[in-house]
Predict the structure.
Amino acid sequence: MDPTEALTDLKQISPQIQRAVIVRRDGVLEASTLSDTAAAERMARSAVALYEAADRARDGLGRPELAQVEVAMRDASVFAVRDAQRLVCAVTDVDPTVGLIFYDLKTSLRSISEAGNDDTYPAEATDGEA
Amino acid sequence: MAKRKAVALALATSSLVGTVVFRRRRRQQQTRVDLYFDDGSMLALDEDAPDAAAIVTAARDVVESV
């Protein structure tokens, strides 16, 4: 499954997810649920910044390797999960089912990795959301 | 006697439910950061924690990127 297909599946199985991006470890946007490419690029950059900030905090606290992050805010929650190749970041409604969201995000990454798509990175929108 | 027990049970139950609802609403209104680590442990940071500021700022940027 390529990253675009993975996000299409993710949106179908996780109605709480409003939008999501998949970003390679080198920062290149691979896929997004947004039709606005500029917005997708902004979200991808912010997602990378989020994970890096979380990793700095982890380092400062002397904790083991970071696996995943959730930031719960008053109007939305942001989730980020990373594997060896890429980062997936999603924005959800308020008070989502946290375990389920993490499971779905990890499943997306695994489905891409298992399909051997580690060298492809077409940045395409999966639906008409702006 | 049975009536007193019923009243006491009703009070205890409503108190417990009220506490759960209050904590849940309070939790929903607060910004917090949950970090999950490879060893299975998790750390929750309040919005005011020094380590949380940059993370919350980036998360806000993610939400406002559209």
The first strand of chain B starts at residue 32 and ends at 37. The radius of gyration of chain B is 20 Å.
